[in-house]
Design brief:
This protein is an alpha+beta fold and 125 residues long. The chain contains 4 helices and 4 strands. The protein is globular and about 45 Å long.
Length: 125
């Protein structure tokens, strides 16, 4: 599956599970990446979009006290850019951070962050 498909599957899972765990409704995507018209890219940059910011953020304090969870989705062959490495290294001071290769891995990391039993949340071990 593509990175888009994996991320969409994760959001579908989180939306489904948010009926039992409402904090999951706070998971959102960051509009980075993708091909855009030059004018749109310029407007987004002026509005504060930053290269390398992770794909998803869950602004909920974790069971370990971390202020939230940042998730970078990558395919099995995907590599972090220098900007993504910079963000990862700086975010980990205050937040949980996960580099995930598929939606199930991301779902397990979300469950761990929130103290939810992953198997009960429909995620195989």
């Amino acid at each position: 599956m593509s990175e888009h498909d994996e991320q969409a599957a994760l959001i579908e899972w989180a939306d489904w599970l948010s009926l039992r765990h409402p904090r999951l409704a706070m998971l959102f995507a960051i509009p980075n990446g993708g091909a855009r018209h030059k004018a749109v890219a310029s407007r987004m940059k002026a509005e504060g979009v930053r290269r390398g910011v992770p794909d998803l953020f869950l602004p909920v304090v974790g069971v370990n006290g971390a202020a939230g969870l940042w998730i970078e989705m990558k395919t099995t062959r995907g590599r972090l850019s220098p900007e993504q490495i910079w963000w990862r290294d700086h975010l980990r001071d205050h937040y949980d951070y996960a580099l995930c290769r598929n939606w199930q891995e991301a779902a397990r990391r979300i469950c761990a962050h929130l103290g939810i039993d992953a198997e009960a949340a429909g995620i195989a071990p």
